[in-house]
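Quick board copy: two proteins, each given as sequence then tokens.
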Amino acid sequence: MNDYRVGLLVPSSNTTMETEVPEVLRRVSAVTGDRFTFHSSRMRMKTVSAEELAAMNADADRAVVELADASVDVMAYACLVAIMSQGRGAHRDIEKRLTHTSADVGSPVDVVSSAGALIAGLHRLGARKVSIVTPYLKPLTALVVDYIEGEGIEVQDAISLEVDDNLAVGRLDPERLPHIVRRLDTRGADAVVLSACVQMPSLEAIPAAEAVVDLPVVTAATATSWQLLSSLNAYAPVPDSGALFRG
């Protein structure tokens, strides 16, 4: 039995990541006995726009320094589009920068990101073609599609729900997702990204969505949880949490 402190860097308006990631890790805890506590630092962002996302990225170092004071064991930059909107491969530079920032203040821990975790998780599943659902406006969804394809994964289809208020994204009803996913073109797809956004609630919809599409399903939140656990060497398969948690 181990005790871990998990640090989350979240947008100031995020209301989902601090519920879905702890829930996945609670399920793991029930299997392994490991215990997890969660500690967040927030970066200002209310509207999902290019300007606010860039400003949030610039503020991330300050948030890392604050989390380092809590002596966490790992950190996750929990905003997928903030990184993907910066251009192909941006998660590598940002993770490296923030890891160095944490080490510079005496807390040498891994800093992972939701963007990097989604890419790594899709590669872990061997997915070469995916279909995705996002809450974003179409121009931001196009950036996410380009980013994923820049990592060697073709995007067969993408549905944009076109919500730019981040609080409103957090209020979207996850029970609608299985119905939305029916509209996706999944011909030839290897997996479905049910929520390419850490703020759009999706965890409880995964089993129903997998039944609809008959494909592996992953979300930004489950990918982030998987990456955090992998960094801690604390991964364990658990039910109803998507393809990355089937072992």
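And the next:
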Amino acid sequence: MRIDELTISSPDIPDLGDVPERFSADGGNAEPRLQITGVPEGTREVVVISHDPDAPLPNGFTHWVLYGLPPVDQTVDTAAATAGPNGAGKIGWYGPQPPAGHGRHHYYFWVYALDREVTGTPSREEFLRDYADAVIEQNRFVGHFQR
């Protein structure tokens, strides 16, 4: 795995900035827009995972899993992607909702360029276990949120 040209960003969430309230579970749960650039040659599929490692759970909390993204630079079209399970066991975006008073949480938005396609809709943990050897390149940006 490497970090080279592949990038993920959002016009809605500045890297290392605060996630606006409208994207939180309590503030409307709007899906943030995502942009991916620098997709390397040989990529067969792009995957995006949003995860909060600060959540008081053994594996943190997964907020979003998107599979089946085309291997090109893009503004992510979530309607064309295959969503996997989030930490609540539901499909799709689940906005930040850390416990009140738990402090500032970090929301990692990871992008993975894979040399093979994902089968099914694995959880974040299953994806990391089963597709680690398929990752050509990865990168991330981080937003913050607290209640």
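Board note added afterward: The mean pLDDT is 96.
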